[in-house]
Amino acid sequence: MADWALILGASSGFGEATSLALARTGFNIFGVHLDRRATLPNAQRIVGEIEAMGRRAEFFNMNAADAEKRKEMLDRAEHVLQGDDQARLRVMLHSLAFGTLKPFVADKPEESISKAQMDMTLDVMAHSLVYWVQDLVWRKLMGRGGRIYAMTSAGSTRIFPSYGAVSAAKAALESHIRQLAYELAPLGITINAIRAGVTNTPAARQIPGYEKMAELATMRNPMGRMTTPADVAAAIATLCQEGTHWITGTVIGVDGGEDIMA
Predict the structure, then answer these.
(1) How far apart, in whole angstroms, are the C-alpha atoms of residue 228 and residue 244?
(2) Which residues contact 24 (CB under 8 A, 6 or more apart)?
(3) What's the pLDDT score for residue 149?
(4) Does the predicted TM-score (pTM) go above 0.85?
(5) Contact (CB, 8 A) for 185 and 137
(6) Do 96 and 67 contact (CB within 8 A), yes or no?
(7) What CA–CA distance (Å, rounded) separates 149 from 249?
(8) What does the DSSP assignment read for 184-225?
(9) Is the pLDDT of residue 1 over 70?
(10) Cβ neighbour number for residue 107 with a 10 Å cutoff
């Protein structure tokens, strides 16, 4: 059977690592990414690596929060899957890291987060998960045995400077996971959040004070180092195997024990 995985945010960080890890275990990859000319070669490199493993890679350079673009991408995915009687979409990873990093109440109003920035952050990093899942189910692209994962962080319950909108998005994402787990259970589809430790990714490096955050994470992690995208991808690849059907609606920590430390 030709299994496919849909990776939202496939060209860097957790999405890149998971695309490659799943390809190694036999998955073909639908990748959704948003890259300009300067970063597009990295997406093309990932496609080449997947194809070098003997897998198929269909990548789409688009805004994953755009409803019309989502429809076009899923039209193509539906066409690909219908072309192979044995094909099925079995995994989706939501790894979208595009939000505004501004304080809620800065000294100057223009330096504070705006309504448009707050709405965009929540829409991309949280609400878009719901809309993608709705379309997968309504189109019958994912059915019994499906596995859905979404990237969260300790920021869903903790405060970092200028992280307020992203923190709210992560908290909303985890709430969406719980609701979707309840509604998807009769369909035999599971959904979980993956809480990675502090990880050196392009998105993390945009957080004000990231260097200090990384230093502290290394010091407090019982493993003596930071989490890597490969650590997280390996865990997701393992969770996509048979026998994980009873894990749903929860937050799974993949952080080397970072979160247990005071």
Answers:
(1) 23
(2) 53, 237
(3) 98
(4) yes
(5) no
(6) no
(7) 10
(8) HGGGT-EEEEEEE-SB--TTGGGSTTHHHHHHHHHHH-TTSS
(9) no
(10) 7
Q: Does domain 3-255 have CATH number 3.30.40.10?
A: no
pLDDT number for residue 46:
97
Instruction: Please give the structure tokens belonging to residue 101.
Output: 């990093």
What is the pLDDT of the chain when averaged over all its residues? 95
Query: Could you read off the pLDDT of 231-254 as tens digits, one per residue?
Result: 999 999 999 999 999 999 999 999
**Interval 206-227: pLDDT, tens:** 888 889 989 999 999 999 999 9
| Per-residue tokens: 223 | 């493993």
Which letter does DSSP use for residue 109 in this model? Answer: G
How far apart CA 93 and CA 243 sit, in angstroms, is 19
Classify the phi-psi angles of 145: left when phi > 0, otherwise alpha if psi is within -120 to 50, otherwise beta: left
- State whether the Cα torsion 78-84-87-88 is positive or negative: positive
Torsion over CA: 58, 62, 64, 68 (sign): negative
Residue 225 and residue 138 in contact, taking contact as beta carbons nearer than 8 Å: no
pLDDT above 70 for 262: no
